[in-house]
Amino acid sequence: MDYFRIMIIGAIAGTLSMILVYIYLYFMYRERYIAIWTIAWFMLLLRNIFFDSGIFDWKHSLFPFLIYQILFIGCSLTFVWGTSIFVGRTFKKWWVYGAVSASLLSILSFLLEFPILYKLIPPTWFAGIVLAWIAIAFIRYVDLIGIGRIIIGIAFALWSILTIIMPFFFETFPYLIAITGGILRLLITISTVMVFLERSSRNLINKEARYRFLMENAIDVIYYYRLLPIAKLDYISPAIFPITGYTSEEYYADEKLVFKLIYPDDRDVFDNFMNNPSQANKLPITLRLVRKDNTILWIEQQCILIYDKTGNLAAVEGVIRDITSRKTLEQVAASLDRMNMVGNMAVTVAHEIRNPMTTIRGYLQYLEKKKEYQGDKGTFNLMIEEIDRANAIIREYLALSREKLANLELCSLNYAIESLFPLIEADAIASKVSVTLNLTNIPKLLLDKNEIRQLLLNLVRNSIEAMPLGGKLVIKTFQENNNVILSICDQGCGIPSHILDKLGTPFITTKDTGTGLGLPICYQIAHRHNALIDIKTSMQGTIISIYFKIHTT
Question: Does residue 182 contact residue 7 with C-beta atoms inside 8 Å?
Fold first, then answer.
């Protein structure tokens, strides 16, 4: 076996190795241009096996010569097609026109029995032009910083020169052409892989930057908590700060901070999640957290469990959403539903109760005047007082009827408060409470003056009764954005947590003599005025704020 055949076998083995590398890359990344390049290299491999090796006598037989032309020209066009996709350029039709022209010239030279030099010039020069364009495309259009595109550009440029001069040295220096071509192909393969890996790395960096941007700017909190080999919070998005008041850095510094924020009554829910994470993976868990400013918020968490190769739970990745507003709306809706239900009952039941009670009161007054009952006058007065008290409860009960409509007029909230102030002050002085008005200049609102008086009196009396040892009561009005806010602030001991969630529910009260209908009536009045009631409470006192929408004409 001569040296030329050894070099041909080496070139075939090298080309086959390149094809295997490209096939591997295609199945790894599924990029279209890799598949096209693989086809081009495969055409080159067929040419090496059947023609360059001398199996077919293509130089003197027409049909083998045509196959040789197809493989030569087809390989060039396929390289152009794949490279155009890779660099983001459009495949031009004039490449096809050039390929057809080169093939026709080569076939004409064969039919006219020109020397092998003239037969090879059209396809080799066309291939040389193709390789030169590929070199320029990689250097000019591939927007990568690495050296891979420079190496592949130079390699294709050298291969272009070698291909153009090949017809002139085809028979005199076949060994040199074969060796040089094999080295350039190997260099192109290595540098192509380098370019592809550089582009893949850049794409991964860009994707990571986009995903990180989305994570860093998402409203919901995204976190990754590693459990193995040691428990550690690997990532928590900055959205945690506006929700809980603690920054991401504070969570990284204190691994147990998240556990400290769990609301005491929801500790069992959280412990159950930690002990049975596979159950929480199916449905979101809902619990409360205590913010840095000691306010309470509701969160909803949905997580994904990540297991290692041995099946052990390795990490938990999830999303936390602040659902405090939704819970507040649900509580308001539930409160309104309960009040509507009570209102429906009130219309039917109240009249049935009041009629016999009116009769009993009348007979008690009649019997009270008889001489034989004069000694029991105190007892009769007590019974009449209790009946009057029951009638007062029924009147409040009827006030919850949903059929009642507010008589809204454009008037001053400050004026309504000032007109009630003497009555409020008298009640406050009797309970050793000082009352302060802090009324600012606010626009007029659509109000039912009688209902606003009832709302204010109910809330103020609740605040006064919350300070049995005395204290300070502040009534404020101010404008915030498109709302006028009426704020009543006391220095009582706050509202118990088991009552706070049920505020607005009829007959729920902390007072020994209370009916539990005052706040439901306030909520109903606020609803009829399209206003919202917000309550913030602590051991230092309670602030009740009513948000009225400003009327716009």
Answer: yes
Q: Give the whole-angstrom CA distance, residue 182 versus residue 188.
A: 10
Cα–Cα nearest to 183, from 150, 147, 152, 155: 155
164-176-168-77 Cα dihedral, nearest 10 degrees? -30
pLDDT of residue 474: 92
Pairing state between β 409-411 and 296-307: unpaired
Axis-axis angle for helices 518-528, 377-399 (nearest 10): 30
| Closest alpha carbon to 244 in 220, 209, 278 | 220
CB 400 within 8 A of CB 517: yes
- Class of residue 41 by CB neighbours under 10 A (exposed 0-12, middle 13-18, buried 19+): buried
| 406-412-413-417 Cα dihedral, nearest 10 degrees | -110
Q: Does residue 540 contact residue 458 with C-beta atoms inside 8 Å? A: no
Other CB atoms within 10 A of residue 246 CB: 19
| Neighbouring-strand partners of residue 439 | 477
Q: What is the pTM of this model?
A: 0.47
Helices 518-528 & 449-465 angle (0-180, nearest 10): 140
Crossing angle between the packed helical segments 174-217 and 3-29, to the nearest 10 degrees: 10
Q: How far apart are CA 41 and CA 24, in angstroms?
A: 14
Terminal Cα distance for the chain, rounded: 102
**534-541: Cβ within 8 A, 24+ apart:** 535/495, 535/500, 535/503, 536/295, 537/494, 537/495, 537/500, 538/294, 538/494, 539/493, 539/494, 540/491, 540/494, 541/471, 541/489, 541/490, 541/491, 541/492, 541/494
Q: Which portions of the chain are predicted below pLDDT 50?
A: 1, 402
The pLDDT value recorded for residue 1 is 45
Residue type, 135: A
Q: How do beta strands 285-290 and 296-307 pair?
A: antiparallel
